[in-house]
């Protein structure tokens, strides 16, 4: 018997676990309503079972018979094969939520060759601490009910924006990949602190609190990052000396190029999938 709110998660990697952590800390659904599967790592499934009390199985038919909501959390390159193995069990009652970067709702509808409800979502790993920036978009057959469920899930683990699908590559490059840019910045700040004489533990503590405090300032004051930056930068002072080095090296332009490259890669991945599987007009 299908439970209208049960969720099957295909893929037991980084993002699936981050979502599990966030969702289960919020009491929006009991762990026994969540089924998790992966391709071959039994130890990982056992770990998830023990850590979260979720159900695990490799029987896709069972998952589809029990769960209305199906979350695709496999790598983009594995999506086609997964869809083929789900195809015969999928019904009009199922709702697919795909997290795969660069894989369009149209691709999923085309491979399944059914009027299936698809929501494409791009969260980030901050789901784990219920601070994801998630964007969702609706496939051709997705209903308001499907959207409401996706919004409920993702708003329990962060902030959700509903966007046009044409924006999803940009979202992926900015906020899907974004935590990595910030972590790289933090890694560099920690090294810098050590270089100018701090013990590593203190450099880490100061860096983390600085990044957290800066983000919180933007959120809580409602001021623009630019205005807040100017407030820190005393003319002729220390910040100005630091900012000058970043400006000389075109730090802002470098970040813009990083986001452009990530967004471009998302677009490219869709083209690769379409060509490989000889699917036309699915971009
Ligand atoms: N890691 C991240 O920050 C984010 C990842 N995503 C997307 O989520 C997806 C997963 O990414 P990660 O968790 O980083 O990857 P990962 O490599 O950590 O996990 C992928 C999982 O999929 C499983 N898998 C592969 N083929 C399968 C199949 N046929 N059936 C069931 N499970 C299968 C693998 O065993 C593995 O557990 C990707 O499509 C990625 O674009 C989206 C947002 C953020
Ligand atoms: O790097 C990736 O492809 C995935 C998608 C967004 C974040 N991680």
Automatic annotation (TrEMBL):
Its main location: cytoplasm. Pathway: Amino-acid biosynthesis; L-proline biosynthesis; L-proline from L-glutamate 5-semialdehyde: step 1/1. One of its GO terms (biological process) is L-proline biosynthetic process. It comes from the Bacteria. Keywords: Amino-acid biosynthesis, Cytoplasm, NADP, Oxidoreductase, Proline biosynthesis. GO terms for cellular component: cytoplasm. NADP(+) binds at residues 73-76. Catalyzes the reduction of 1-pyrroline-5-carboxylate (PCA) to L-proline. This is Pyrroline-5-carboxylate reductase.
């Amino acid at each position: 018997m299908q439970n209208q709110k049960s969720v099957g998660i295909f893929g037991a990697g980084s993002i699936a676990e981050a979502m599990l952590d966030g969702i289960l800390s919020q009491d929006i659904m009991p762990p026994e309503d969540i089924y998790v599967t992966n391709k071959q790592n039994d130890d990982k499934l056992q770990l998830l079972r023990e850590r979260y009390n979720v159900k695990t199985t490799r029987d896709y038919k069972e998952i589809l018979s029990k769960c209305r909501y199906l979350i695709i959390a496999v790598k983009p390159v594995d999506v086609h094969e997964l869809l083929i193995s789900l195809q015969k069990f999928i019904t009009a009652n199922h709702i697919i939520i795909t997290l795969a970067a660069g894989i369009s709702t149209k691709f999923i509808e085309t491979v399944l060759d059914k009027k299936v409800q698809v929501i494409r979502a791009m969260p980030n790993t901050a789901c784990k601490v219920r601070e994801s920036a998630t964007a969702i978009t609706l496939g051709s057959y997705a209903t308001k009910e499907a959207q409401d469920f996706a919004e409920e899930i993702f708003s329990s683990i962060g902030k959700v924006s509903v966007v046009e699908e044409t924006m999803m590559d940009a979202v992926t490059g900015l906020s899907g990949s974004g935590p990595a840019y910030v972590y790289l910045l933090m890694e560099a700040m920690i090294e810098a602190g050590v270089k100018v004489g701090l013990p590593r533990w203190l450099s880490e503590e100061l860096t983390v609190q600085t990044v957290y405090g800066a983000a919180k300032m933007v959120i809580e004051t409602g001021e623009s990052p630019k205005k807040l930056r100017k407030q820190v930068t005393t003319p002729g002072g220390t910040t100005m000396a630091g900012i000058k080095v970043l400006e000389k090296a075109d730090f802002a332009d470098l970040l813009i190029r990083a986001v452009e490259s990530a967004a471009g890669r998302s677009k490219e991945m869709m083209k690769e999938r379409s060509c490989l599987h000889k699917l036309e007009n699915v971009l």
